[in-house]
Amino acid sequence: MASPPFESWLRPGPAGLYCAPGDFHIDPAGPVPRAIITHGHSDHARPGHAAVLATADTLAIMRLRLGELGQTQALAYGEPLTVKDVTVTLVPAGHILGSAQVVIDYQGQRAVISGDYKRHADPTCDPFELVPCDLFVTEATFGLPVYRHEPDMAEVQKLLASLRDFPERTHQVGVYGLGKCQRLIKLIRQAGYDRPIWLHGALRSMTDYYVARGLDLGAVPNAMDATDKLAGEIVLSPPSALGDRWSRRFADPLAGFASGWMRIRGRVRQRGVELPLIISDHCDWPELIRTVTETGAREVWVTHGREEALVHELSKRQITARALRLVGREDDSE
Q: What is the mean pLDDT of the chain?
């Protein structure tokens, strides 16, 4: 008996990707009766769902960011769950703490919805787990050949070298508050830096959650509590705080930005960044191609990013691919 086409049971719609035999959406764009959420970033985890299934960390992060949720169910990595006529399993995506790929088994077919993912080692979350499948739904945030991320520690060494070269200046680095902030702190610690790393208040709640989950980040005081201008110190802030009034309290602040977008010189100039740090929580172009190939998927759906370029490249490799164009947004702070 031939397997049903994927579009007959897993299909994009106005609210996002919908699994008909399980009657749930994955990372829906608006409130739905039943949602499975891959991770806690706001372009994937939205409020208003009647019922939410996710990892325990993603649910906790959603509560911190969104307030009370509806009915919730936490599912551990690797724990299969029967949902109506399908089996759902969550496996690590390697993106941020609690991030998961959604594995759906139905009538002998396996679909993997990756959410956001990365293959680089990250001391702040479980590593990406490759799952062989028939259909792979991949992001394409950095889905252009120009995007090739540098080794993380080499970028951290650029920051530490700048501190040595400009000890009279505060090094203010823009970071996304969930995932990037905590990962950068841990990388800096692994590089041997043991001084306090000062935080903008907007980064406090997520950082405290990571610490409560057992991640040792060392001293991370609030920048507002400093009694001097923090010359020669590292201050982390949201990217939006770079160069604004909040920065004026520091000693000739040197603006850095940790993001995969820092590969593009135009973005560096647009942001007024003096110290671009190419540190990403997503796959770069070679990693996207490698991951798709390693899954063995006979069909690939591409969403959230540079869809057309990746679809074209996969088609050249005789892999059936299509662009989903789901509702979402490109996260500039990444």
A: 95
Read off the tokens for 186.
Answer: 């841990």
Determine contact, residues 123/182, Cβ cutoff 8 Å: no
**Alpha-carbon gap, residue 53 to 228, rounded angstroms:** 46
The 3-state DSSP class for residue 35 equals: strand
Phi, psi of 227 (to 5 degrees): -100, 0
pTM of the predicted protein model: 0.95
pLDDT digit string (tens) for 14-61?
898 999 999 999 999 999 999 999 999 999 999 999 999 999 999 999
Distance (Å, rounded) from C-alpha 284 to C-alpha 262?
A: 12
First to last CA, the chain: 44
Torsion of Cα atoms, 110 then 113 then 118 then 119, to 10°: 0
Task: Say yes or no: 266 and 201 in one domain.
Answer: yes
Residue 234 binned pLDDT confidence (cut-offs 50, 70, 90):
very high
Between CA 276 and CA 286, with CA 280 as vertex, the angle to 5 degrees is: 110
Contacts of 149 (CB under 8 A, 6+ apart): 120, 142, 260, 263, 278, 279, 280, 284, 287
Distance CA 298, CA 300 (A): 7
Clarify whether residues 98 and 182 are in a common domain: no
Please count the other Cβ atoms lying within 10 Å of the Cβ belonging to residue 148.
14
Are 297 and 266 members of one domain? no
Residue type, 318: Q
